[in-house]
Amino acid sequence: MKFRFNKPTCQNIRKSLRKEWIETNGLGDYASSSLICCNTRKYHGLLVADLEQPVGKHVLLSTLEESLLVGDRELFFSCRKHPGVYYPRGHEYLHEMEIGEWPIFRYRLGEVTLCRELMLIPGRRLLIVRYEVRGAGSDTPPMSLRVKPLLAFRHADHLTHANPDLRPETFSAPSGFSVRPYPALPPLFMQAQGEAIFDALPDWYRTVEYLVEQERGFAYQEDLFQPGVFDIRLVPGKPVYLTASTEAIRTAHGQDVIGALWRQEAERRLEKARSTETLEGHLAHEGEKCLTRRSGGEPAVVAGYHWFGSWGRDTLIALPGLTFYAGRPDTGADVLARMGAAARDGRIPNCFSADGNHAYNSVDASLWYVWAVQQMLRVLPDRKGFVREHCWPVIKAVIDAYGGGRVPLVSRDAEGFLSVGTPETQLTWMDATVDGRPVTPRHGQPVEISALWYNALAFADSLAKTFGEPEWRQAGLDGMRAVFAKRHWVHDEQNGDFLADVWREGDVDTRVRPNQLFAISLPYPVLEEEYYANVLSRVRRCLLTPYGLRTLAPSAPDYRSLYEGGPAQRDGAYHQGTVWPWLLGAYGEALLRTAWDVPGSTRELLRTLRPLFAQHLGDAGMGSVSEIFDGDPPHLPNGCIAQAWSVAECLRLLHLLREAAPEVYAEWEADARKGGD
What we know:
Elements: E1 3-5, H1 7-11, H2 13-16, E2 20-24, E3 30-34, E4 45-52, E5 55-70, E6 73-76, E7 79-82, E8 85-89, E9 94-99, E10 103-109, E11 112-120, E12 126-134, E13 143-155, E14 170-173, E15 176-179, E16 188-193, E17 196-209, H3 211-215, E18 221-234, E19 240-245, H4 257-273, H5 279-288, E20 291-293, E21 299-301, E22 304-305, H6 312-322, H7 329-341, H8 365-379, H9 384-403, E23 410-412, E24 418-420, E25 433-434, E26 437-438, E27 445-446, H10 447-466, H11 477-488, E28 489-490, E29 498-499, E30 502-504, E31 507-509, H12 518-521, H13 532-542, E32 544-545, E33 548-550, H14 567-573, E34 579-580, H15 584-594, H16 598-608, H17 610-614, E35 628-629, E36 637-638, E37 642-643, H18 644-660, H19 662-676
Helix pairs in contact: 5-18, 6-7, 6-8, 6-18, 7-8, 7-9, 8-9, 8-10, 9-10, 10-11, 15-18, 18-19
């Protein structure tokens, strides 16, 4: 799918700064900025490297100051924010921006059109920027491109300022230079293909501002280092290339090495695009951005761009949609095997570390592992051999550890359910804290933990039967369902019955939250079927929006409608009304399991969600699905611009709805795609 933005949109700086693009390379690196290439986040940059030493994402090349020299005129087509001013104002020349197989920017500079395109090359820490001018007449003076690289060379979470520790020296490289401002970080090589001259002119560009960081209550000003200036001769119709990499590109005089790399990657992407014309295909393509392999070849899932790493819970919830439903079964199996190998005492890591010192601080990551295995078998029923070898031992270890009281802060009661946490802990996915205290205390028996635990026990029972291990058959499952309903069912004559969010001995949290859906949606529901319709009805009326599900009903006194302000204010709203798209997967499962009129229910849900797929895909992280949205209309997007489980569960939802009502879905998709252009 392609998203095109015309001149009025590009030149409306208020709107264009809210649209962002991202390129990835499968190594965890990325290039990203706003629609007009004016950085609005400290996380933006043209080469952001996910390093193993020092660990984390580091902004090496922040941006480029670019201008076209025509005769005695210098026309700047780049853009930055400084205190009280945008300078240069290159967006005023931006005639069209297109995001599809790669970002393309077209500038109209007098009678000349300049096309600027960029790519990250998969599997390599290599950015290529392609420039080409067209439209020059016979009387057009000679033209050249002037490019000033602006470097940050710092961790993505931090900012840099002019300092005497930076080493400004540049060293010769084929058709360019290398520089290593700090010894702890890798060198940066920048090379041109074309008639190019590089002059070392070290300087600092001071007080560059990042609008979004200012809004988020963080430090938002930094200084960027200019090592020198490229001047590259331009000939109409003949492209020139500029690269940024942590390794030198071997070039030879007269050889089109960089151009050949570009054309090869462009052909690969164009061929692949033919399979991404549907919404499912597009989301599968976007999901690939969240799949990475480290230097050792281990697969991983990036939870979200720009700042999240590899999280256990996020990985397992996202994995089916990113792999099994997206035509990448082997990648999904590799991730499951890796995560199983990382389990300790029946616990899947919640946060993965490059040095192997993983964090085991969630109660549900291990239970989501079971669900991910179920989803693999749902799509790939022939993988039972893989499950027996790699997953079955892990599942048994999980049940042994949780049921045997060997997981910290987890105990099993007499009826078979798990009680988790303390008032000071946050072990479920609603884990935000302010001043060291949970915003959403959920200690006791959270409804989805009970649902996930029951599902794990029932699935283990099924696998034990399949694998001929009768000693692993689970007893008393039907009795657990009766206990669950008795504990969690809330009778509300005025507004409709529903499931309590948390049960504690002598106490029930009756806030209406989406977690109750998992009692219906999981492969082995813990809730009796007679209750399904009431739960779904209450969730639909209180929580469903065009972009996902609210985390709390607006009627609650502690509902927060907007995700805004500083860190404490945003964390206070994170699970207190903020809308999450990833919950739509569970909602779709529950709907299809409950509906008596499947085509009609499918049509209604798709109609409700049309803004998500018809408008949002061209907004925020262009082409992708945001992490969260405001609880109240207009439901502005926020958080990460490309969230793994948002993309994955939206894809899985569409797959389920298409299978359930193919004709309804086909009609809706055709209409939705028109709205997204």
